[in-house]
């Protein structure tokens, strides 16, 4: 019988196009990917890949095997999930991806609740950017993931994935308590013209969103400082009086000399969702995790309100 690990490797190679990308997606080394492909070729008695310049491509037989194998792997996972679901109890191990504030604000608080209510379920995590996380779920490297999209950008999912919204997370302008806007009940886009900002790196999702705030005004934000972590951005706020656009979920504790002032437009928010493969739709573990994180998000929303 065809080895499912080798088959999954072939399907991933067909989708991603290179041994390096396949290795990164599956968490293997390039040598391990090559070994799986060679093992599959030996078992079938014919090559499933062939050299093309510096890379490799699937042979006609390899492409047909990948096409049919992808459906078989999906059916196999669906069968396993349905069998596990018979008890109705979350059990086994799942790996959940996420971005930093989603992990801190939703997954971490859910873990004690999961441990108390579902002691036979083990949850591990993986942190990465949303685009990478979607690829990891699609490839089967992780089981589910927290992802987000700003209103100004849509979240594109492969047909094999489904998602459900957990919460809509607003962002505030974080500033020093001595800033001239700190006493405002809320601020507008116009209020932010000419103000100095600290931002996530160029082309990061949060940087694109900050830039989008000024597009309706035909302007750009004045960004003088750059930092990946929100903790570091807050230190810039304290030290040099810069402003920072910081979402509420998973926000670090604000020091006494820093305040968060809401934006006047509630649509300036990010939608946070959980995504998973359709073949795992019957999983009690996924359903339980989703329920717990929604409860945590609802509690946080009531506090913010």
From TrEMBL:
It comes from the Bacteria. Keywords: DNA-binding, Transcription, Transcription regulation. Gene3D superfamilies: Periplasmic binding protein-like II, Winged helix-like DNA-binding domain superfamily/Winged helix DNA-binding domain. The keyword Transmembrane does not apply. Coiled coil: none annotated. The keyword DNA-binding applies. Pfam families: HTH_1, LysR_substrate. Residues 2-59 form the HTH lysR-type domain. Belongs to the LysR transcriptional regulatory family. This is LysR family transcriptional regulator. It comes from Brevibacterium sediminis.
């Amino acid at each position: 019988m065809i080895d499912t690990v080798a088959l999954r490797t072939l399907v991933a190679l067909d989708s991603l196009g290179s041994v390096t990308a396949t290795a990164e997606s599956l968490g293997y080394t390039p040598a391990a990917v090559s070994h799986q492909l060679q093992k599959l070729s030996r078992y079938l008695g014919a090559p499933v890949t062939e050299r093309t310049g510096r890379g490799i491509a699937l042979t006609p037989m390899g492409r047909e095997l990948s096409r049919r194998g992808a459906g078989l792997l999906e059916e196999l996972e669906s069968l396993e999930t349905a069998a596990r679901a018979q008890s109705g109890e979350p059990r086994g191990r799942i790996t959940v991806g996420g971005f930093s504030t989603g992990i801190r604000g939703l997954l971490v608080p859910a873990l004690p609740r999961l441990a108390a209510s579902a002691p036979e379920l083990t949850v591990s995590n993986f942190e990465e950017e949303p685009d990478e996380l979607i690829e990891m779920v699609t490839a089967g490297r992780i089981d589910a993931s927290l992802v987000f999209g700003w209103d100004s950008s849509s979240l594109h999912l492969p047909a094999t994935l489904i998602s459900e919204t957990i919460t809509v997370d607003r962002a505030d302008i974080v500033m020093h308590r001595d800033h001239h806007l700190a006493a405002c009940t809320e601020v507008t886009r116009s209020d932010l013209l000419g103000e100095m900002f600290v931002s996530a790196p160029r082309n990061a999702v949060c940087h694109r969103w900050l830039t989008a705030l000024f597009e309706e005004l035909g302007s750009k934000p004045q960004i003088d400082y750059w930092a990946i972590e929100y903790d570091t951005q807050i230190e810039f706020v304290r030290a040099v009086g810069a402003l920072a656009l910081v979402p509420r979920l998973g926000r670090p504790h604000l020091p006494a000399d820093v305040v968060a002032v809401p934006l006047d437009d509630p649509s300036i928010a990010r939608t946070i969702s959980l995504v998973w493969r359709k073949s795992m739709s019957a999983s009690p573990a996924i359903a339980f995790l989703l329920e717990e994180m929604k409860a945590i998000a609802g509690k946080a929303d009531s506090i913010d309100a």
